[in-house]
Amino acid sequence: MEIERKYLIDATKLPFSPEDYPVHHIEQGYLCTEPVVRIRKDNEDYFLTYKSKGLMSREEYNLPLTKDAYNHLKSKVDGRIISKKRYVIPLSRFITRGTYSDLKIELDIFSEDLQGLVLAEVEFQDEESALSFIPPVWFGEDVTFSSEYHNSNLSQRTVL
C-alpha cells in the first residue's frame, strides 16, 4: 500500500540545493492509465508497476524488468515518456517535531515536456499520519487529492 501526500513546489523557494542529496534519474511511461500499469527506469534498475485507483492511498506492486524488456515495452507506451530527477531528502532536516523523523521527501524535478514542474511527495505508514501531516513552509499547494498531478495523467497532457 502506498500512502502519500503530494505538493507543488516553487523551485526558487527551495531552502537548499537539491544537488546536495542523492539523485535518481527516472524515465517512465504508461502502458495503461486505468488501472495504472507503468514501466520505469530508475538509474540502472527497471520495473513494471501496477497501481490501483486512489488519490492518497493506493495499492502498488513493483516487478523487476530487464533492460531489454524495458526497452521493448517502452515502444508501446501510451502518451509521453516522463523524465525527471528525484532527490531523496530527509524530512527531519526541516521538521524535528512529531513522528516525521524517519520520513523522506522525494523531490521530483521534471524535464523535457514537463520542464518547470517540481513536485514533492512524502510517503507515510498509515492514513492517520498522512492526514495529520504539517508540511514544511516551503512546500506549495497540496495536490494530493488532485489526479491532475498523477504522473499517469501528466503523461497524457499536451501542455503543462
TrEMBL record:
Domain CYTH intervals: 1-160
Gene3D superfamilies linked to this entry: Hypothetical Protein Pfu-838710-001
One Pfam family this sequence matches: CYTH
InterPro entries from the UniProt entry: CYTH-like_dom_sf (IPR033469), CYTH_domain (IPR023577), NeuTTM/CthTTM-like (IPR012042)
SMART domains to which the protein is assigned, alphabetical: CYTH
Entry-linked SUPFAM superfamilies: CYTH-like phosphatases
Protein name stated in the entry: CYTH domain-containing protein
Natural source organism: Ruminococcus hominis
